[in-house]
Amino acid sequence: MEQVNSVLGSIVEGASASPDPSVKRICFMSLKKLVEGWSGQNVLLDYPSTSGFIDYVYKEILPICFIVPLQPTFDLNEGQAYLCLGEIVSLLKELVTQRGEEFLLYLQSQYLPSLMIPTDIGQVLIIDS
C-alpha cells in the first residue's frame, strides 16, 4: 500500500506543482483513469481499499481540481493550459459518473462551503453537472 500512496502522491504533486501545463494535463488524465477504475459504486477491487481511495480523492485530488486553475502561472491563453483545464473538467465529470449523488452532496455540503463559495454559486455548479 505504501508504494501505491507514493505513486498517487507523485501524480498529485505533478498535477499541482509542476510548472509545465503538459505535465499537469498528463497527471490529471492519469487521475481520471484511477478514479474511473477504483471509485465506482460497484468496484470489487480491494487494493487499494475502495473507501480509502475515495477518501483520498475527496481530500487530495478534488482540491487540486480547483486550486490548479487559480494558480497565477496557469495561463488559459496557453494551449496546454487550456487542454489541462479540459482534463480537470473531465476528471470532475468522471467523479459525478462514478460516485453520483454522494459526490454532488459532498461538493454542496462540505467542499464548496469550505472554500467560502456562496450557496447559490455552488448550486449552479451542481445543477449543471
Automatic annotation (TrEMBL):
UniProt keyword Magnesium, yes or no: no
Predominant place of localization: nucleus
Pfam family, one: Exportin-T
GO cellular component annotations of the record: cytoplasm; nuclear matrix; nuclear pore
Keyword terms: Cytoplasm, Nucleus, RNA-binding, Transport, tRNA-binding
Subcellular location: Nucleus; Cytoplasm
Keyword DNA-binding appears in the UniProt entry: no
Ranges of residues in domain Exportin-T C-terminal: 3-121
Coiled coil: none
An MF annotation (GO) of this entry: tRNA binding
GO biological processes: tRNA re-export from nucleus
Superkingdom in the source lineage: Eukaryota
Sequence similarity: Belongs to the exportin family.
UniProt function note: tRNA nucleus export receptor which facilitates tRNA translocation across the nuclear pore complex.
Name of the protein: Exportin-T
Organism of provenance: Amphimedon queenslandica
Source taxonomy: Eukaryota, Metazoa, Porifera, Demospongiae, Heteroscleromorpha
